[in-house]
Amino acid sequence: MTNRSVSGPGGESPPGPLPVHVGQDTVPAVPLPAELVEPARTLFADRLPLAATYAELLAGPGVLRGLIGPRETPRIWDRHLLNCAAVAEFIPTGSSIVDVGSGAGLPGIVLAIARPDLTITLVEPLARRAVFLAEVVDALDLGETVTVLRARAEELAASRREGAGGRRRRPTRAGRTGGPLPAAPGAPVELADLPADLRVPADIVTARAVAPLDRLAGWCLPLAVPGGRLLALKGASAADEVAEHAEVVRRLGGSAPVVRQGGRGVVDPPTTVVEVVRERAGRPAATASRTSGGRRGGTPGGPR
Ligand SMILES: C[S@@+](CC[C@H](N)C(=O)[O-])C[C@H]1O[C@@H](n2cnc3c(N)ncnc32)[C@H](O)[C@@H]1O
Hints:
rRNA_ssu_MeTfrase_G; 31% helix; single chain; Rossmann fold; binds S-adenosylmethionine; eight-stranded mixed sheet; alpha/beta
């Protein structure tokens, strides 16, 4: 493999969009291990070739741009794609999804591949990640069902509250008479240019490896419709987090969190998901962060 289009492995984006037709010289093949063929077929069905292309984009440009660690490449199928796709069983047909903190597209892009019936908004504040996401959406032709928004979850929630009768929103790029301009292909949408038909708040809010449960609930529950659900993909600490943060989640308007296992009998290990139903409007997120000792509005271990 030669890295002909790469400016450096340190994380700066190479110029130009991702290749739509992936070539052997810029994008490494990411073989699907034999023992994962059956689970992958079960979870992706006829969209498995699209999942394979996404695996290559993660392992190629995703690694070169510093969005995913090089040591993840051999684990892309099980630890990332299948782990995320296993969440689909908790999502009813035709649902709207907001994926908070999508990073390189996990789980949002994976769900869009596995479930073309879903309408998905990917929310990612970091510009180079949001640009990568928009380019992936373009390369995989997912634009009909996926919107990439460069914003923080709490900013999006505030802007939707304002749009629903609070403060007037500032004029969009299109001015006072027209609607927002559509984002250019391969570019994320900015908060000031939200499409009029954006399905936010959504039926389901997903998040993986973004923040502890109390902070996550503060950011995500306002992005769910009443009766909608937060599905937080968690690791081994899920039960501890539930025990620690259940009271804060309740004050934020959430139900008692429940730990579920997705993909049982299909993926090993199954995907651990904490599910919270939005039961009512809760107290503002900053209150929850203070009570649990978190930084107000801080980002969990990540750059802004
Ligand atoms: C550790 S990464 C996880 C990325 C991806 N979900 C995954 O599982 O690989 C956390 C992501 O959350 C994003 N993030 C942090 N604070 C956020 C906020 N307030 N709203 C939305 N995204 C946020 C970061 O920019 C980063 O991309």
